[in-house]
Amino acid sequence: MGKQPVKLKAVVYALSPFQQKIMTGLWKDLPEKIHHKVSENWISTILLLAPVIGTYSYAQHYQEKEKLEHRF
Predict the structure, then answer these.
(1) Which portions of this protein are annotated as coiled-coil regions (predicted)?
(2) pLDDT tens-place string over residues 6-28
(3) Rounded to 5, what percent of the chain is helix, strand, coil?
(4) Helix (H) / strand (E) containing 47
(5) Which long-range contacts does 50-54 make (Cβ < 8 Å, 24+ apart)?
(6) For residue 7, what pLDDT is reported?
């Protein structure tokens, strides 16, 4: 019994350049999805955003103080 080569058929998928509904599922109900994720993980959101906002506001305050320091 010899081995016979088997021809494989390749399937090529392509999107039409005129197709407009490619990613509609991604954008559908986006605000609801974001609200659900944030309400589920609000403590993680606070723990992530608090240091970032705090550091940014401190840097802005320090920069403003340094800018006004030469006036007095």
Answers:
(1) none
(2) 888 888 877 777 766 667 777 88
(3) 60, 0, 40
(4) helix 42-68
(5) none
(6) 82
54: DSSP letter = H
Calpha distance 69→34 (Å, rounded): 43
Query: Which distant-in-sequence residues (6+ apart) come within 8 Å of 45 by Cβ?
Result: 38
Integer Cα distance of 54 and 60 in angstroms: 10
Say if residue 7 is exposed, middle or buried (CB neighbours under 10 Å; 0-12, 13-18, 19+). Answer: exposed
Q: What DSSP character marks residue 10?
A: P
Q: Is the pLDDT of residue 56 over 70?
A: yes
